[in-house]
Amino acid sequence: MNQPVILTDSDDASIRDAAALLDSWEVVVRRDRELAASVEDVPDVRVIVTLTENPNALRDIVERARARVLPVIVGCANDVARRRAIELRVDEWFLLPASAEEIASRIRSALARATPAAAALADRIERVEYEQMLYDHLTGLPTLPVMIERSRQLIKERGELIVLYVNFVRYSKIEEIYGWEKLDAVLETTAQAVREFLDASALRSSRVMVSFTNDDDFVFFHVPPPGVAAVTDAEITELVSRLQDHVGGRIEAAHGEEIASLFEIYVGMAHVYYNPKIRLQRLIYRGIREAANAAKSVEERERGRRVEDLRRSLRERAVYIDLHPILVADTRHVYGYEALARGTLRTLRSPEIMFEVAAEADLLWELGRLCRSKAIEAMKTRLTRGELLFLNVDPHDFVDPEFSAIHREVADPQRVVIEITERTAIKDYPKFRERLKALRERGYRFAVDDAGSGYAGLGSIANLEPDFIKLDISLINCIDTNFIKQNLVETMVRFANDQGAKVIAEGVERAEEYETVKGLGVHLVQGFFLHRPSENAVSRTGETPVVRAPDTVARVGGST
Questions:
Q1: 265-273 and 334-343 as β-strands: parallel, antiparallel, unpaired?
Q2: Contact 370, 358 (CB under 8 A)
Q3: What is the helix (H) or strand (E) element at residue 219, kind and residue range?
Q4: What is the DSSP string of 6-64?
Q5: What is the pLDDT of residues 489-505, one digit of tens each?
Q6: Domains (ranges, CATH) in the chain?
Q7: Which terminal CB of the chain, N or C, has fewer other CB atoms within 10 Å?
């Protein structure tokens, strides 16, 4: 009988040592995309161990392996790779570097669960799918059906249940802006922070769950311990405030202020009393609906309060401008600044929230005027000669009668780049191009913002003929491990070079992303890897960064 084979794409010595621990198995190495093709060609393969960082190659490997009922084990270099492995439902994963003993253990574990017969395979798939309905693989939280069964006897004995429905209202916005990888990471942080909070609170006996897998709202079941009174509405309100502060703090520490500004929770409560004449599941589901509706009512009240906050901000001009530098990719010198508007009131700190409220209250023109005026004031006092101001403007603003008079405030239009931020679709391109032409004749330049997201697709680029193409953060996030994103960016750079335009990669948060986009020929970059508004003049590594606070930044052709 031939020796069993470990098929891998790595020469890592630990894999060969692991093979020796498995009674001297043979190791066959196939590089890169050849590994997937070799799954069907190499005889006696028993397991596949891959260290690939190419998500497309990994998907191909998993699909080929499933067809042959072969377990796949993935070595993960970081959390991004780990989440991808989990998403593809690989049999085992380990973090690099790993010892031979750990790799051998993972192989044994994967083989122990593998069943070669077709009927057994179908049963295994069914069991895996069933398990995934019971637990959310990302947060590790159980789903509602599991918790109903686990809580059944406690509810009957106590005779009551308090249901809390926790609605994270803007998690969908995080996914929309930053991509699903970022939201997955935020959900992991959220689940861990919620557990920490519960362990130290009066609700420590609560059980937390998701309604179903991959949900981003949480449900709490609180059955008071024997002899302990149920928590009151006032106690819940106080606990919710502390929960928001605790989870928000953890999110800011792990993911930054921009993400944390989108974090907000609304909690609804329902008190369920056990009635043996009514099926318990129905009582609980009705309670969850009641709690969810209560959370929605809280959200509606908060929206009304935010509209009043916005009206006050417009009266008092309570908006400040954060100048976020845009750097030359090769030299990391400042090319210009994007003016990012922030509300001075805490409820309107995030620009996404501020403009969302303005749209609901039909105040977009008024808010747009204030933000433009503040940005132009900042340009006059905080930018040096030759630096460009990137000014966000929505297509909706172009029909504002006051927008055509922008030149009265701008002394040098050639230093202003109007970023067309498509919160709303452009419906009449011929008329819109006429407005752009009139502004171009005065010296303004244009950028298409968030290219690759929402309305800002190839149609906008073709119709608007921008001077700058800003790639959406969701396209840049994890680009170092995503070959499809790399191909898209490379194509966009080639197109821009042909048209005499420049590509700006926004949302560069890691060194690997920066090196990747620079290598792909991207002209300009911006993001928290290169500049954080609250960053000190000395970086964490102790080196003096090229970019510091906007008023003391390294200037092109200037001084620090």
A1: unpaired
A2: no
A3: strand 218-222
A4: EEES---HHHHHHHHHTTS-EEEE--TTHHHHHTTTSTTEEEEEE----HHHHHHHHHH
A5: 999 999 999 999 999 99
A6: 5-134 (3.40.50.2300), 144-305 (3.30.70.270), 317-552 (3.20.20.450)
A7: N
